[in-house]
Design a protein that fits this description.
Layout lengths: L2 E5 L5 H10 L3 E6 L2 H9 L3 E4 L14 E6 L11 H16 L3 E9 L10 E2 L10 H13 L8 E6 L1 E3 L7 H5 L4 E2 L5 E2 L1 E3 H14 L4 E5 L5 E2 H12 L6 E2 L10 H4 L6 E2 L2 H7 L8 H16 L1
Parallel strand pairs: 1-2, 1-4, 2-3, 4-5, 5-7, 6-15, 7-12, 8-11, 9-14
Antiparallel strand pairs: 10-13
Helix pairs in contact: 1-6, 3-4, 7-10
């Protein structure tokens, strides 16, 4: 039986842990929250209560086949992304890295920044612009140092969307103008496909490995939200320029730097990845169905 440890059991991490648990693996989930620990137990996932920002809280763990670092800010929105993504990874590697055969970092295509390349693949130079992307790029570099590169797998996620995470939905429901560039090109991945990609690559890859995780069918934000409005029976969306007050929005919600196509050929060709949601229309249909079910 394979043993997996998932550090960060949030939107993506919990799905990764559940997929492995459903497959019959011995799965541990690391969380700061005692209530989340109870949820993990109910799901058959063994909880480890620890905080990557507090290295002393990282106790002993058993040897594992795979260690996944998939942390997010959660309720710690004011925490430095460098502390969370870079320093937290360093603490986990120092304490637990030698107990793992493979180490997976859930990163972001945001590390490419405003690349001049028409099509971006894993060999495209990184030019991260924002703090989170810069911190993830530094975390990648740490995992690719000689000490860890023989175990390193880096998964660069596109814009993750899914139930409960449809950017700007509150604007659409209240028919407010959307503060984002309507022509921005979005490179998306449905959350369940993001988790499945980690499961597939974690076992099949030969480290060191870097993989872009997108559905390969980019769409403009106008196309995306026009389809959302159609499903909800609302008028077409209206867009406006983002204001400085909108900088709290996520990169995906703003549409920042989304002006290029990101290739998923490595994920598809090397790892035979197929998608539950092959494009945004299938993803939106699932999300809207989920939202309507909650309202019933």
């Amino acid at each position: 039986m394979a043993r997996r440890i998932v550090v960060g059991t949030g939107y993506v991490g919990l799905r990764i842990a559940k997929l492995w648990q459903e497959r019959g693996d011995d799965v541990y989930g690391v969380t700061r929250s005692s209530s989340k620990a109870a949820t993990l137990t109910e799901l058959g996932i063994k909880p480890i209560i620890a905080d990557v920002l507090v290295p002393a809280s990282l106790g002993d763990i058993p040897h594992c086949d795979t260690l996944v670092y998939s942390v997010g800010p959660g309720g710690q929105s004011q925490v430095s992304r460098f502390a969370l993504y870079r320093d937290g990874l360093v603490a986990v590697l120092d304490r637990w890295g030698h107990q793992a055969d493979r180490i997976v970092l859930v990163s972001s295509t945001g590390v490419y920044g405003n690349s001049s390349s028409e099509v971006i693949d894993e060999s495209t130079p990184r030019r991260p612009l924002r703090e989170a992307s810069q911190a993830l790029a530094e975390a990648e570099d740490i995992l690719l140092t000689p000490a860890w590169r023989s175990k390193a797998i880096i998964m660069r996620m596109g814009g993750i969307y899914g139930p409960g995470r449809l950017p700007l939905l509150r604007y659409i429901r209240t028919q407010q103008p959307l503060p984002t560039d309507s022509d921005a090109l979005l490179n998306l991945i449905y959350v369940d496909d993001a988790a499945r990609a980690v499961i597939i690559v974690a076992d099949a890859a030969e480290p060191p490995e870097v993989v872009n995780v997108v559905d390969g069918r980019p769409v403009t934000r106008r196309q995306f939200y026009e389809r959302v409005c159609q499903y909800l029976g609302l008028p077409p969306p209206v867009f406006c320029s983002p204001s400085p007050e909108g900088t709290h929005l996520s990169r995906g919600a703003r549409g920042d730097n989304a002006v290029r196509m990101i290739s998923n050929r490595r994920l598809v060709d090397r790892y035979n990845m197929s998608f539950l949601c092959a494009d945004y229309e299938q993803g939106i249909e699932r999300i809207i169905a989920s939202e309507l079910q909650k309202e019933c």
